[in-house]
Each structure stands twice: as structure tokens, then as C-alpha cells.
Specification:
single chain; seven-stranded antiparallel sheet; 9 strands; 29% helix
Length: 278
């Protein structure tokens, strides 16, 4: 009787494991958009001779430190410590681990209500002949932290000794917005404290999916559909990694011929800007 009872318990547990937990994980994986293939191409993932693939120039949600165009280039990151320690930290935070709270996700980290109150108070003081307010809104940090929903898909040491990491983000949002499913790749070279980056949405975002952001070159506000860039920047801030300064032709800080949007209004016929566009 005991042997029969033990056999029944074992069979029940085995059935539960095989047809309970595993199908749930398989179904969750099946609900994600198909993963990109590995290799050397615009849509591919994987390490290629110590670096990462570039993004297709038509990809609306993709960034790579190997691209040289403004829409898809992302500067490498730099950090303190060893490559393995930095990779450990990235995996921990990207997969839901804690990190120090960030500034509010608003311009300059200031509360919109505080800024609005300051503007209204200043306007009222001007109209009534009073001095301007002395206290200005200060940057505020978020209460707690919002964990990332990444899942570690691959981590290995490359032939040249670098750390390669791939994390899949957005599985929890795959049903509502498949473009939030992003394959993010990171390479930590063994001889330098920098991180090479690439991130791409598996499904292009719709024409109406994006965020408004400030711009100095095109117009005061632009509609940005590149969710992969926003995701990496949020992750970088959570990690407290720094941006490697990179001189590019499209950055007005390094190119005096790059026309800013307000310069177009003030001096639309300037030959210097017209020549730079040829």
C-alpha cells in the first residue's frame, strides 16, 4: 500500500511539473513576437567579431553604438570597476533587481505641479508689483523604484575575452503593445571600461506610438518613436553609468554648421547652413 501511495504521489507531482509549470512558461514564450535570427545583418542579434550589429536606417525603434546616423546612434557607456562586476550589476537591475531611485521622469526632474505653481506665483507677483518668488522648484526623486521586467536570454564570454549579455524586455507588455518587446545587447570589452550597446524592438511601433521630447535641431518638440533609445537611457540612469563622449557630425556641440531650429527662424538665408546641407 505504501509503495502504491508513493507511486501515486510521485506520478501526481511529475504530471503537475510537466503539464503545469512548463506549459505556462512555453505559452508565455509563444506569446512573444518571433525573436530575430543570430548572425551578421541589420535585423540580427549576436556578437560579430567583438562588436554588435548596426540598425537598419528605416528601423523606427532601434539603436546601436555602431551606427553613424543621428536617428540610430547611441553612445557607449562607461563605468567604474571590472567588466564582470559591471555585467553582474546590469543583469541584476535589468531583470528586476533594486537600484537607487531616479529623478522624476519630467524635465530636469522637477514636479510639474511645483513648476506650474512657481510660474503662476511669478506672474501674479509681476502683475501686482511684488518681487519674484525666492524659492524655485527643486529636482525630486521618485519614491522607491520601478523594476525592469527584463529576462536574461544569453550571457557568455566571447573569443576575445569580452562579456556578452542579451536581455529581453517587455514580455509583460507583449499583448498590449508588441513593440515594447526589445532585445537589448551589451558587450563589455575585457581591456576597457566601456559598454557597447544595441537594442531593437521585435515589432515596429505604430505611427501613433511614441513620446514628445525636446530638440535643438529639428523643432522645439519632436515625436520620438524610438522606444529602444528611451529604454536604454532609463536603464543607464538606473545603473549610474556615464556616457562616453563621441564627436559626431550631427551633434551641434561639435559641428558649427549644424543649424539649430531657432537659427532657422532668425537667419533662414544663411549661406553657411545651406552649404552644409549639400
Amino acid at each position: 500500500i505504501c509503495d502504491r501511495r508513493n507511486l501515486l504521489i510521485t506520478s501526481t507531482l511529475t504530471t503537475g511539473l510537466l503539464y503545469g509549470a512548463f506549459p505556462t512558461a512555453a505559452i508565455a514564450e509563444a506569446e512573444l513576437p518571433l525573436p530575430p535570427q543570430e548572425g551578421s545583418c541589420f535585423e540580427c542579434i549576436g556578437e560579430v567579431k567583438g562588436t554588435l550589429n548596426t540598425c537598419d536606417l528605416d528601423a523606427p525603434s532601434c539603436v546601436s553604438s555602431q551606427n553613424d546616423d543621428e536617428s540610430h546612434f547611441v553612445a557607449p557607456w562607461m563605468y567604474d570597476g571590472s567588466p564582470s562586476e559591471a555585467a553582474d550589476l546590469l543583469v541584476s537591475v535589468a531583470t528586476g533587481g533594486p537600484y537607487d531611485s531616479l529623478l522624476l521622469d519630467t524635465p530636469f526632474g522637477r514636479s510639474r505641479s511645483d513648476v506650474a505653481g512657481f510660474i503662476l506665483q511669478g506672474t501674479f507677483n509681476v502683475l501686482t508689483g511684488q518681487p519674484p518668488p525666492t524659492s524655485r522648484p527643486q529636482a525630486q526623486r521618485q519614491v522607491g523604484y520601478v523594476p525592469f521586467d527584463g529576462r536574461l536570454a544569453d550571457r557568455h564570454t566571447t573569443e576575445d575575452g569580452a562579456e556578452y549579455v542579451r536581455v529581453i524586455f517587455g514580455a509583460s507588455e507583449a499583448q498590449s503593445d508588441p513593440s515594447r518587446v526589445v532585445d537589448a545587447e551589451f558587450i563589455f570589452p575585457s581591456d576597457d571600461a566601456v559598454v557597447l550597446l544595441r537594442a531593437a524592438s521585435r515589432v515596429p511601433p505604430s505611427d501613433t506610438t511614441g513620446t514628445l521630447k525636446l530638440s535643438f535641431t529639428d523643432s522645439p518638440l519632436v515625436f520620438d518613436r524610438n522606444y529602444s533609445r528611451l529604454l536604454l537611457e532609463r536603464l543607464r540612469k538606473a545603473l549610474r553609468f556615464q556616457i562616453v563622449p563621441v564627436i559626431t557630425d550631427f551633434d551641434p556641440r561639435f559641428n558649427n554648421d549644424k543649424q539649430l531650429w531657432f537659427e532657422k527662424l532668425l537667419d533662414p538665408g544663411n549661406e553657411r547652413y545651406q552649404q552644409s546641407g549639400n
